[in-house]
Amino acid sequence: MNCHAAHEIAADILETGTVIVGAGAAGLTLADALPGEVTVVEGGGPRVDARIQTTNWSHVSGEKMNPDAVRVHAIGGATTRWTGRCVELDDYDFEDRPWVAQSGWPIGKGELAPFYDRAWSSLGFTLQDGMKLPGLPMAPAEPCEMPPLRECCWWFNGRKANRQQNFANRYRQIFAKPSRRLIYAASATGFVVEGSRVVGVRIVDRAGRAKLIRARNVVIAAGCIDNIKLLLLQHRATPGFLAPVEDWLGRGFMQHLRVRGGPLIQEPAEFQALQRQFNIFFGPGRGRHERGLALDPAYARAERLGNASIFFEYASGRSRFAPSRAVNAVPRMLGRQVVLPQGRAMLFADVEQEVCRESRVTLHDSLGPGGIPRADVEWKITANDYRTAEAVIARTGTLLGSLGFGQLSMPAGISASSIEPAFITDSNHPLGGTRMSEDPSDGVVDRNCRVHGTDNLFVVGGSVFSTGGHANPTLTIVALAHRLADHLIGRAPAPLVAEVASTADKPVFKRR
Ligand SMILES: Cc1cc2nc3c(=O)[nH]c(=O)nc-3n(C[C@H](O)[C@H](O)[C@H](O)COP(=O)(O)OP(=O)(O)OC[C@H]3O[C@@H](n4cnc5c(N)ncnc54)[C@H](O)[C@@H]3O)c2cc1C
């Protein structure tokens, strides 16, 4: 296996074909898909180290959130912690919707479709009949011009959380090939640039020793906030290099606005009926899927709303009729969902945020490990985001009532113009900040994830999403990594630049 901690490597200058910064879902997918010489540099090590996690915190100056929950510095990145819930973005997420600020991706869903197929497979799914079918429209009983909601499905690989969904369990196999190398405990701090080209990536090991990796192509796959941070650091060091994209760099930062509604007022029979309709179900095959609701595109268009989905959580009441864990285990073993006889149903909305320039990541004045400025996350929620959240929860309440699933009384803290912070929880889905756009005046990377105005600097991850839809982002991140791999394979190889201005010690070129 070709994996080494940075401090174990004697050479101060290394050479490779493609350097990928970050060994999370995106970086490891790309490393696996690329032929030729690939070096992945990863700031963390084989296991999550609490000391590194706690020293790497970000400053928060906007709405309350915890951006660091998803900045996991270890091989595997945040997939060492994720839930594994997968769903594609909807077709209309890619479209220009004039009522959603800055909407419209430069690529359509059709262009991503073959890469979604590869992403499902990379994430351990076998595509089965029914998995890709659109949800069923859910019409309320009272007359309505169009159904406001449709059924939505999220997919999990396996009957429970498993080894395959954690990318840290894959690196031994990926780096078994001699042409691929993983250097861990190696934080990328910036790039050596010449004109519009990146010619090398600077890294520091845990002892603070600097090294340089010379490469033909450089891909930043460091997770949303660190993708932005690395580019901001570079912009500070060499302002001319990223001048074409400085207008949007760090801006348009989003996450899914996750809003808690409920509990529902229900009779036990209604509570049980709801669980039979919207729950986590076993199958098809050896997987699981979760059924919930999403706004119907036609309704969202007519009402000028963003995209949004609803899922349910159930808690057993403290009734003496509540089943014990052992009793719950039986239906699970048989591959059936657990239906609690009594308890509480809560609903959660995952709401698309429109792109807002004032919602942004910048460099804070305080310094983190190695004297590197911390990220300052100024997350903003817009009036349209509140309106979409209130609408999807209110329409769900109407639908549940008409289907005989109980009554939802809208909490006083949720209205179309504001939502109290107590009802908002983090989604762990940071998005935007290096958004994809046709033109540098609207974003940071082009349709091929190349930073506008540069020859060979690429970014992949949630940060490149032009808009975020409601979908959990990792499947799309993996699809984008596959698409970038195809693009890099198709590019004519650029020569390595012979001389690199470097502050590192004398070069020792090492060919593999
Ligand atoms: C609790 C939790 C639950 C989640 N559940 C879901 C879910 O159900 N579905 C879903 O779709 N998503 C979920 N997510 C989000 C999912 O984990 C991320 O979308 C995904 O991991 C992002 O992949 P990535 O490769 O872009 O970034 P990451 O997986 O975060 O990987 C980035 C890597 O880059 C490294 N890095 C950062 N900076 C540097 C640097 N300067 N130098 C070198 N290396 C660096 C990091 O150490 C990290 O290993 C969840 C996240 C959390 C925390």
Descriptive notes:
It is built from 10 helices and 23 strands. With 512 residues, the chain is of the alpha/beta class. It has a domain at 1-84 and 163-252 and 429-503: 3-Layer(bba) Sandwich (FAD/NAD(P)-binding domain). Strands 6, 7, 13, 15, 16, 17, 18 and 22 form an 8-stranded antiparallel sheet that branches. It has a 6-stranded parallel sheet with strand order 1-8-4-3-12-23. Helix 1 packs parallel to helix 10 and helix 3 crosses helix 10. The radius of gyration is 24 Å and the shape is globular. Residues 498-512 have low confidence and may be disordered. The structure holds flavin-adenine dinucleotide.
Topology (elements, then pairings):
Elements: E1 3-5, E2 13-15, E3 18-21, H1 25-33, E4 38-41, H2 50-55, E5 59-60, H3 109-122, E6 137-138, E7 149-156, H4 171-174, E8 180-184, E9 187-194, E10 197-204, E11 210-214, E12 217-220, H5 224-237, E13 257-261, E14 264-265, H6 268-277, E15 280-282, E16 288-295, H7 297-303, E17 308-316, H8 325-333, E18 343-351, E19 360-367, E20 373-378, H9 383-402, E21 407-408, E22 424-425, E23 457-459, H10 474-490
Parallel strand pairs: 1-8, 2-11, 3-4, 3-12, 4-8, 5-20, 12-23
Antiparallel strand pairs: 6-7, 7-16, 9-10, 10-11, 13-18, 13-22, 14-21, 15-16, 16-17, 17-18, 19-20
Helix pairs in contact: 1-10, 3-10
The protein binds flavin-adenine dinucleotide.
The site of flavin-adenine dinucleotide (FAD) has 39 residues, from helix 1, strand 9, helix 5 and helix 10.
